[in-house]
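[step 3/7] fold_predict: job queued, chain A
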Amino acid sequence: MKIIGITGGIGSGKSTVCRVFQLLGVPVYYADEESKLLLNDPVILSKLSDAFGPEIIADGKADRKKISSIVFNDKQKLDTLNKIVHPAVKEHFEEWCRKNSASDYVIKEAAILFESETYKFVQKIITVTAPEALKIERVMQRDGVSEEDVRRRMLNQISDEEKIKRSDYVLMNDEKELLIPQVIELNGNLKVSFTTKTQSS
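[step 4/7] structure written:
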């Protein structure tokens, strides 16, 4: 199974890029969204309750706002959360890969691809980037938050510069350079690359 990791800072537009890949027939696993859903798995809920207290459960579901407030400025508690959630996401992703094994390649979208060390388990990495001011504007409009809030969230992520250094491909989503043609070209290159490697091996 050929797995492509795709990441990008908040407001970069990586979800938009993923939707284009899906339109091109490439299966996309949204790790961030799946991890949120898996929080409500009974086994995960039990572990979260043991770690952070029963107050993080409301109406039988994980209260993500309470969990976020607990781990936001506490690295040790954030590490505890990740140790509970990441193995479950990994297992879920592996099962998803088996269901999509007929595809030329699949994409795993993750905001913290590097931070979670997920990058170690993919063959290629794509970073979606955009100018900082544009990213901030997008998030402010999308989430109805202040510029200060957006900048605070950005501090918890590896910089775009560092992501780009560690990536195989970069897609610019600056609303100047057309995004869809970039994705179409990259999809073609990836298919050729993987097909060639398969034939040569």
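[step 5/7] annotate
The two ends are 14 Å apart (CA to CA).
The longest helix spans residues 75-99.
exit 0
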